Amino acid sequence: MTKIDTSSPENVLPTPSHTVGPFYGYALPFPGGGDIAPLNHPDTITVQGYVLDGEGKPLPDAFVELWGPDPDGKISTTDGSMRRDPASGGFLGRNGVEFTGFGRIQTDAGGHWYAHTLRPGARGRSAPYISACIFARGLLVHLFTRIYLPGDEAALAADPLLAQLAPERRDTLIAEDQGNGTYRFDIRLQGEGETVFLEFT
Amino acid sequence: MTLTQRDIDQEITEERAAYEKRLAGGAPVEHHPRRDYAPYRSSTLRHPKQPPVSIDVTKDPELVELSSPAFGERDITEIDNDLTRQHNGEPIGERITVSGRLLDRDGRPVRGQLIEIWQANSAGRYAHQREQHDAPLDPNFTGVGRTLSDDDGFYRFTTVQPGPYPWRNHVNAWRPAHIHFSLFGSAFTQRLVTQMYFPNDPLFPYDPILQSVTDDAARQRLVATYDHSLSVPEFSLGYHWDIVLDGPNATWIEEGR
């Protein structure tokens, strides 16, 4: 039955996840999906990397969703990531002024993804990070991870998640500084250097 | 070696037996597929071998993942939930109305959140460049829609019944007709992408993607119910499908779970 009886909690059970399959590409990605930072914002960073399978091959049929706070650690409640145009039925794109904190980035034919966003600020006891969620053909349930930025070693050392990981696993969550505000973060779904993925309970 | 439906059937049976054994051994009910599900061949190199690292959200209410991206009226147009009105002409196929509620694990409505769908046309063809199935494209059907859930969590789409289609997992592999759904909750932890199926499809037992949900009751929750009260006279047949998002949200902390 797919009419859920909400009067008895034992009937409220989760809808199972499924893969996005191979054909989401004309439905989910939207223009400017990775251009999350407002235009000319001084705290803009570039985050880029590859999504790789168990043989180290890049995935051309994956997408990454990013969700992060602004440089003050504030969570955006602003909509408008995928503004639509009622006149043409197409996309208007972001307005270039407001920060929604959300991006969706399709990998290109070489498995490469890139985003311009704002440097995240710290919240609670965590070091600053951007939450990332990965979807792909072949992936039956999406994967959550976090992109931490290098630099503030004290903050990283105090982070409750990073502190519980072995050094080589911890390193998979910290992006590589490539200079000029650019950071490299590869997502390895399987095998050597496999990215740490998260579950929330 | 050619992979046949029989080979896949055997693997599906083995996976199900393994799940029954886990249950008998006291393991919890599995509401979601395992990412490592061999009958769906594309999963082989794309699932992590390491177990996920668990984060107890009750320990830190400031976690980024406990909030969710916001979407609003700017992100949809009025007719984005009607897939039959996106072109100059009418799409070919049986018109359907698909409606239901977006709920959290406590049965509370998820309000004002983005619901995106995509699907094949009535002949079983996606309007996607990489699609190789030679069923006809329909110039009047793209197969993409989006809407926001209302204050009671309700959503509603008008579209055409999608067709089943072949794929290359194994010889003579066919996907049962389905509509893809992408959903957001009040927390990013509740993010969900899934597929809705139609009642009594004879292809169900053969499909390794549907069968990746090894729990019988969980699999049933992916199948919509025909609902005559949703059928629109002289226009469309109605299907009801409620969606329950998994994953903790901020109310769990407020209630001290």
Question: Could you explain how this protein is built, in words?
Answer:
The complex is a heterodimer of chains A (201) and B (257). Chain A is mainly β. In chain A, 7% of the residues lie in helices and 25% in strands. Chain A contains three helices and ten strands, in the order ββββββαααββββ. Chain A has helices at 153-158, 160-163, 167-170; strands spanning 44-52, 62-67, 102-106, 112-118, 129-136, 143-148, 176-177, 182-184, 187-188, 198-200. In chain A, strands 1, 4, 7, 8 and 9 form a five-stranded mixed beta sheet that branches. In chain A, a hairpin with a 6-residue loop joins β5 (129-136) and β6 (143-148). Chain A is globular. Chain A starts with 43 loop residues before the first strand and ends with a strand. In chain A, 49% of the residues are buried. The model of chain A has no long low-confidence stretch (mean pLDDT 96). Chain B has 257 residues and is α+β, with helices and mostly antiparallel strands. Helices cover 13% and strands 22% of the residues of chain B. Chain B is built from four helices and twelve strands, in the order αβββββββββααβββα. In chain B, the strands form three sheets. In chain B, strands 2, 5, 10, 11 and 12 form a five-stranded mixed beta sheet that branches. A four-stranded antiparallel beta sheet of chain B has the order 4-3-8-9, with no helix packed on it. A two-stranded antiparallel sheet of chain B has the order 6-7. In chain B, β6 and β7 form a beta hairpin. The mean pLDDT of chain B is 95. The interface between A and B is large, with 83 and 95 residues. β10 (198-200) of chain A pairs parallel with β1 of chain B.
Element pattern of chain B in H and E: HEEEEEEEEEHHEEEH
Mean of residue pLDDT values of chain A: 96
**Number of DSSP helices of chain A?**
3
Estimated share of beta-strand residues of chain B: 15-25%
Low-confidence stretches of chain A: none
Query: Assembly type of the shown chains?
Result: heterodimer
Helix vs. strand class of chain B: alpha+beta
